[in-house]
Amino acid sequence: MVKKILAQTYLWVLLLALYAPIAIIVIYSFTEAKVLGNWTGFSMKLYASLFDTGAHHSLVNAFVNTIAIALIAATASTILGSLAAIGIYNLKARGRQAMGFINTIPILNGDIITGISLFLLFVSLGITQGFTTVVLAHITFCTPYVVLSVLPRLKQMNPNLYEAALDLGATPMQALRKVIIPEIRPGMITGFLLALTISIDDFAVTVFTIGNQGLETLSTYIYADARKGGLTPELRPLSAIIFVVILVLLIILNRRADKKR
């Protein structure tokens, strides 16, 4: 009985430590106080100010850039990562282990090292840094996560399905599209959402590849804002909106998964 109470207490303390900061941001997004922690009464002024593009044009631009980069990078890395996972799965045991190890290195590698490496690569190739280099950098570090998400689905798949489709007259492309992709689709969706989240959250790689042409993402905007001595109050409602959208997406995906089961 005592162990059960201690286990439940530990779980609730852990959940409180994880979600209390988010709850505070959401709560204080409904007050117009400039300083977080100073409640001046319920107000939707910060939400109205956030969507007033004239007042916070740079913040809205940074958010739009972040979402655009994340969507492009997540889509490209999902395609590349899924194809790479299929290729790795069809290798022999030793080759599969070697490629799995190589795929893990970028995940375990520090973001700063990845950012510096990509920065030096773009400079040596004479590529002007900006939107394109940030997208390429995000695709680079998101793809290994997609590979890790898709490989387990391939291992669960019946290995004879693909050959059976070929024996029944399907071309390799038809077998890929109608047999393999439906089997690995849950892993592809998981990889896409993971890549999307990692891309939105990234700062270290972005700051090395963003250049000096005035492009800003949400992470670089917040960093520059914090260095000025404080954070723009409108970041609170923006953070609350992002959290709610992600929460709704997770609930929808979990319910769909439960219905399929």
From TrEMBL:
Residues 63-253 form the ABC transmembrane type-1 domain. Belongs to the binding-protein-dependent transport system permease family. CysTW subfamily. It comes from the Bacteria. It is a multi-pass membrane protein. The keyword Transport applies. The chain crosses the membrane at residues 12-30, 67-89, 101-125, 131-151, 192-215, 235-253. This is ABC transporter permease. It is found in: Cell membrane. The lineage of its organism: Bacteria, Pseudomonadati, Bacteroidota, Bacteroidia, Bacteroidales.
